[in-house]
Write a sequence for this structure.
């Protein structure tokens, strides 16, 4: 996999997770308005998992950026 493909897939996955986060937040608000706190809690719990995944992806990107910087410092084209 090329670096640009990795970046594109990474960005697409992040966008999908953020869209899912927004949807969960909206669904949770609707469930609270309906008085269904159990389902609202489920949506918020799912958002916690999304936050964890986004943090993992951020760490992964930082690692890739570090590798690219080291490659460039040694005259290697990533």
């Amino acid at each position: 996999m090329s670096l640009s493909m990795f970046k594109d897939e990474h960005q697409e996955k992040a966008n999908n997770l953020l869209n899912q986060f927004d949807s969960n937040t909206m669904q949770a608000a609707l469930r609270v308005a309906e008085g269904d706190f159990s389902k609202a809690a489920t949506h918020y719990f799912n958002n916690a998992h999304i936050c964890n995944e986004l943090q993992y992806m951020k760490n992964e990107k930082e690692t890739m950026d570090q590798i690219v910087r080291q490659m460039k410092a040694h005259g290697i084209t990533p």
User: Anything to note?
Assistant: The chain has a mean pLDDT of 93. The first helix runs from residue 3 to 34.
